[in-house]
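the two lines:
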Amino acid sequence: MSADLVKSPGTSPDPAPAEAPPRSLRPALRLGPEISFPVHVRSLVVFLALLVITVVVAGWAMTLGTIDVPVGTLIQAVFGSGEDGIVRLIQNWRLPRVVIAIVGGASLGIAGAIFQSLTRNPLGSPDIIGFNNGAYSGALIAILVLNTGRTGSTIGALIGGIVAAAIVVGLATRGGGLQGMRLIVVGIAISAVLASLNVYLILRADLETAMAAAAWGMGIFDTITWSQVLPIVIALVVLVPVLCGFARSLRLLELGDDSAAGLGLNANRTRLILIVVGVGFTAAVTAAAGPILFVALAAPQLARRLTGSAGIPLAASAAMGALLLLVSDVAAQQLLAPKQLPVGVITLTLGGAYLIGLLIAQSRKA
Amino acid sequence: MTTTGLDSPRPAAPGVDPAAPKRSLVEGTANRLVVCLVALVVLVLLGFASLFVGSGEIPASVVWEALRGDRTDTLALLVTDYRIPRAMIAVLVGCALGVGGALIQAITRNPLADPGLLGVNSGSFFAVVLSVTISGTANLSSYVWWSFLGAAVAAVSVYVIGSRGSGATPVKLVLAGLAFGAVLNGITYAVTFLDPDVFDKIRFWQSGSLQGRQIDTFWWALPFVVVGVLTAVLLSRSLNALALGEDLAKSLGVHLFRTRAIAMGALTLLCGAATAAVGPIAFLGLMVPYLARVVARSDQRWIVPLSALFGPVIFLGADVLGRVLVPSEMPVGVVVAFLGAPVLVAVVRTRKKSGL
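prediction for all of em together
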């Protein structure tokens, strides 16, 4: 295996994942002779561990800031008791920020997992294939050209993301098949066009609007309020059940179209639905907090390494995404405190470094 | 040789560039010279056109009188001090990026290579932002050396990262460029974000624009571009040998390391000067050699001069287009991206068996 990363070798880009034990040896949750669920113990442990770490980091993040809040006061304030100012600070500012990092990160992790499964390529994440830049273009056009308000930008981001997705998938599809590598290169091309369009849109604006738009363009959380958290939560409430319904189909698609069809799956229709769901997760985050790059790329891969599963684990990817984005946001707040960086700057830098590391690690095995 | 996946886009047979069309559309030296001549004529026509269009109405008669030196009022000054230098800079930068693209594609043997895609422009941009932040001034003389340094470091780093292990394959290089560019852009954004002053100085430059450039930019960049292009011309025989594969090139007496190092140096001069002059421009270095290969197949001795001609034609054309297209003037970098992305998509879609 010389260049796994760029060879789209099924869903196992890592030549040495822990081999999944044969199905019969797997522990299962048995509720009777007929009803049983296979339980991947390590995945479950990883998932729970990630959740616990995320909650701890979230708590710690909320104690930080211009006003230090001790843990005891914090817990009281979260539940609405204590000094008025502190309660308002926690409930209206720090809590939504932490929540959006967690929920947004989870959404990106799931979106990345879906796309990486569908393209059977660790690079098939929405940020590399142009959805984020498309959503950003849509939002910028809404804000800077059409002068719509906040809601307009949300709708614009949604439309922009979906249009960019449609263009990229359309151009990359040839002769009926969607090829991972071609999808990525076409995505990079379209991404670059959209990025330059975005620069142009920002350029036309006056400095103050441009600064604000550019900050949002890098993903910024420090002005987040509950009204921006709500749409993501609603999107998740709608999309997660849909995804759960199709999780099994996603696994079947990983086996290849022929096998999936042999098992009675309409591969093209299922793929389309899953793409729409994946775009939905990405667009919801982008609309609320700007395009945040690389979380969708890194989270599923890290999760897969930790769980040692053969496919890309959805739940662990979500938990990993939440933790990554939360930690990035804490870094964005604290690194140059009191000045705050957009969280996207951190994820861009870290994600780029992660990708470099991935390329180097892959080449070692060659 | 592996034939699956992305390791395959090595030349299938000696001398055959995988990205080049099977047969050249234009055979024979005489016909290629005709193509050169046509390109030259188009370039001259575009040059004239670029003097007549622009933001602000200047009557054609005024332009003529200004060109002949009969007028010296404000309108005439706009023509002589802005439009003429602008056209000259466009030609110079187009030439630099076209030849730079041809060089980077030859060194990496990668038809997807482009100074923008491979992070070279990000390196330049990063270094320039650093220098503006440190010195507080934003004029060319203070940052052009930084631009070279940034371009050189990025070019070498991306090449080293992308060619580890099994060697540089097109997509690995693009990914390395993407990754390295992301890290640099992240830090650059952080710096510009923290300092609105730097942000304001840099944002027009960032989009790749010819707006408001004056003649001193041209004179600054000229020597570097001339040296870069001449080096590329002199190297073209060695680069031809390099296209045959490392072993064959070595047996033909080509010093591999030296050839690559000199080519990298020329590339740095070309891209660094171009980026310093007008900001990062993506895709020009990708599409110009691609078009040159349509005419010249894989012979670097033709590709380099053809790129030096096609580059200015496309770049100047894009600049004129950007001025005509929208009232508030679209930066040339944006127009080039819109023209170039379809070419990249076309490359990807037509390369059936390369694994892309």
